[in-house]
Structure formats: structure tokens, C-alpha cells
Automatic annotation (TrEMBL):
Location of the HTH araC/xylS-type domain: 144-241
One function term, GO molecular function aspect: DNA-binding transcription factor activity
Protein name: AraC family transcriptional regulator
Gene3D superfamilies attached to this UniProt entry: Homeodomain-like, Jelly Rolls
Keyword Transcription: yes
Transmembrane segments: none
Superkingdom: Bacteria
PROSITE patterns: HTH_ARAC_FAMILY_2
UniProt keyword annotation of Transcription present: yes
Keyword annotations: Transcription, Transcription regulation
Length: 247
């Protein structure tokens, strides 16, 4: 299969149905946000990150804000150098420029030039830290019911005990399930969920204060601290980097 690369603008809320590829795929939102969902969970990537899906994994995409999406396919024979499961990686300045250059529709590049750029991309990904805004999917019915309640209203302040009374499990049981099945704490999982929603709100033009309140933070300062720690930049800085057409 010939390796594909390309670019295009996708409307806010655009959903690409579940599918799979025989090659690996990188999806980069140069502006806007892309969420990639698989059976293993959901990954979210603003412009500071790029999503990676290896060959054979069924996945879907949803885009938030008017998204400048860049798509690069990594031929199957080159995928062994990268991780064998879906993930999200930090985008270094060099990786960003390589992705943008490789998908620039205004420039005509030879196959050899594209191969050289792809080699740079792969080298950068090998060195890039895996910093996934990842929400793993639960298997246990009680935990699945609890996380679904949180997904329906990320801003709610329900405790584990309150969620347990609704789902038929004790707070201790839910806490254990979060650690055993999802590899994280309840607080951390809910924080990542809230950051997912915060990215979508900020991309659509909501203010930092309104986003903080809607996503469950008691004040903008605590939201800014959490957002910066996970995303790597403040909410205000993130909004400032968005393309005006995406607002």
C-alpha cells in the first residue's frame, strides 16, 4: 500500500466512524483538538501532541473546533520502531515542522523527499515521551457504570461513595477497580476526563473562567494549575495558539 499523507480542515464535531488500517497512522491537529477512541480507551490531542494508531487497531476520531488536521501514514514495515499500541506523544518543534512540511498541499515533493521527512518523524517519535491524555475503558460493569455517570456530567462533584450507592459498589471496591483495571486513581481519571472537556470548551471559544466552572473546578486558579500540569501550557496560552478560524 502506498503511504499517504495529506491535510484538510474539518468542522467542529466531525466524527470519523470506526475503521482500521493495514499501516500505522499519525493524526495531528495543527489547530483544534482530535480525540481518538479505541477499545483500549480514548486519547485526546491538542496541537502539542500527535495521536498514533498502529496497524490493525480499530479506531474512530472526533474533532473539536475547526480543525487543521494533518494525516501521515507510516508503512507497516516501518512501524516496528514505534510502540505497538495506540498512544499520544509530545510534539517537539522539529516534529511539528516535519509533520506540517510533509502534509503541505502547496508544495510538491518527490517520493524520496517524503521518505526523508517520514524518517525524521519516526526518529522524533522514538525520542518523544508518551504523554497521553488517555482515558482507559473499564471492563467491570460497576466501574463502567460509574465512569459513564462521570462522562455524562464531568463537572459533578460526586464522591466515590456517592457513585457507589448508584452503581451498587462500595467506595473501597470502586477505588480498587480504578487502580486495578485503569491503572490510575479515581481523582486522576476524573481530572483527565475534565481536561478532555476543557480542551473542547476552550477550542470552541469559551473563556477560561467559564470552562473552569463548567468542568468542575471550584476556581480558575485550580483549573489553570491542573490544565498546565497535564497539557504543558496554560489555558490562556493554549487558546492564544489556536488558528482564528477555529474560534
Amino acid at each position: 500500500m502506498e503511504a499517504f499523507h495529506g491535510a484538510g480542515w474539518l468542522a467542529h464535531g466531525f466524527h470519523m466512524q470506526a475503521h482500521s488500517h493495514t499501516d500505522g497512522q499519525l493524526v495531528y491537529a495543527a489547530s483544534g483538538v482530535v480525540a481518538t477512541a479505541t477499545a483500549q480507551g480514548t486519547w485526546v490531542a491538542p496541537a502539542t501532541r500527535v495521536t498514533w494508531t498502529p496497524p490493525g487497531f480499530e479506531h474512530s476520531h472526533r474533532f473539536y473546533g475547526l480543525t487543521d488536521v494533518r494525516l501521515v501514514v507510516i508503512p507497516a514495515e516501518s512501524c516496528a520502531a514505534l510502540i505497538g499500541h495506540p498512544g499520544v506523544f509530545m510534539v517537539s518543534p522539529l516534529l511539528r515542522e516535519a509533520l506540517l512540511s510533509m502534509t503541505d498541499q502547496q508544495k510538491s515533493r518527490s517520493a524520496q523527499a517524503v521518505d526523508r521527512l517520514r524518517a525524521v518523524v519516526i526518529d522524533e517519535l522514538i525520542e518523544a515521551p508518551d504523554q497521553s491524555l488517555h482515558l482507559p475503558e473499564p471492563r467491570d460493569d460497576r466501574l463502567r457504570a460509574a465512569t459513564e455517570l462521570l462522562r455524562l456530567d464531568p463537572g459533578q462533584s460526586a464522591t466515590l461513595a456517592e457513585l457507589g450507592r448508584t452503581t451498587g459498589a462500595s467506595a473501597r471496591t470502586l477505588s480498587r477497580l480504578f487502580h486495578d483495571e485503569l491503572g490510575t486513581s479515581f481523582i486522576r481519571w476524573r481530572t483527565i476526563l475534565r481536561i478532555h472537556h476543557a480542551l473542547a470548551h476552550l477550542t470552541s471559544g469559551r473563556s477560561v473562567t467559564d470552562t473552569a466552572i463548567e468542568c468542575g473546578w471550584s476556581n480558575p486558579t485550580s483549573f489553570i494549575d491542573a490544565f498546565t500540569a497535564i497539557v504543558g501550557q496554560t489555558p490562556g496560552r493554549y487558546q492564544a495558539t489556536l488558528d482564528p478560524r477555529g474560534m
